[in-house]
Design brief:
transmembrane transporter activity; membrane; transmembrane; MFS_trans_sf; transmembrane helix; globular
């Protein structure tokens, strides 16, 4: 079986995941500023995502030992889908529910974890032999593609909607879900 046939689902997942992460990095601080009404919380957006990635990494590490890396990858992307949906609901809220944006951003850390974890899933699929470095580089190439696409989606969404941030987060959920599909 050829190497690419073995890891193509992981490469496709990485393209989707990197696009979702790049898109969310583009709008997270803008969303935090918009939702809170002050620039003071702009940095808290990225902090929430990094803290989420840290906690999700610890959780998925424990899952790796029991159920394998593929299960951990699926879970991290599922959490990113949930985080995107929560962020989409939080944007535009003019009441006490604004704080849920940061819960959503915390869960979006799953996208970061998924982007890092997928290269290890690829090596697990091909083994640690001579194909491991090719598998990692192929997945990283997928990351480059997704990272180039993701941030540019906001510009497209801004032209389509009066509330582009809400649309972006909802589209982000679809992107992360698209990353899960090849893994099923």
């Amino acid at each position: 079986m050829s190497l690419l046939r073995t890891i193509w689902p992981i490469i496709l997942t990485q393209i989707f995941t990197s696009a979702g992460v790049g898109l969310n990095l583009t709008v997270a601080a803008l969303a935090a500023t918009s939702v809170t009404g002050t620039d003071k919380f702009g940095g808290l957006a990225q902090t929430s995502t990094i803290l989420g990635a840290t906690v999700i990494t610890i959780a998925t590490t424990h899952l790796n030992h029991r159920f394998g890396r593929l299960t951990s990858l699926r879970l991290s992307l599922f959490l990113a889908v949930a985080g995107s949906l929560i962020c989409g609901l939080a944007v535009g809220q003019e009441n006490e529910l604004r704080w849920i944006l940061f819960v959503g951003l915390f869960l979006l850390g799953g996208g970061t974890v998924g982007a890092l974890l997928s290269r290890f899933v690829a090596t697990e699929k091909v083994g640690n032999g001579k194909h491991a470095s090719t598998a990692i580089s192929s997945v990283l190439f997928g990351s480059a593609i997704g990272s180039a696409i993701g941030p540019n989606i906001y510009g497209i969404m801004a032209g389509l909607s009066a509330e582009p941030m809400r649309l972006v987060f909802l589209f982000s959920a679809l992107i992360f879900a698209g990353g899960i599909l090849p893994l099923l």
